Amino acid sequence: MGPGLTLVATPIGNMGDLSPRALAALKAADAVLCEDSRTTGAMLARLSVAQRLIPLHDHNEATELPRILEMLRQGQKLALVSDAGTPLVSDPGFRLTRAAIAEGLPVSAIPGPNAAVMALVLSGLPPEPFLFEGFLPPRATARQTALARVKALEQAGLAASVIFYEAPHRLAETLADMAEAFGAERPAAVAREMTKRFEEVRRDSLGALATHYAGTEARGEICIVLG
Question: Which pTM does this prediction carry?
Answer without folding.
Answer: 0.93
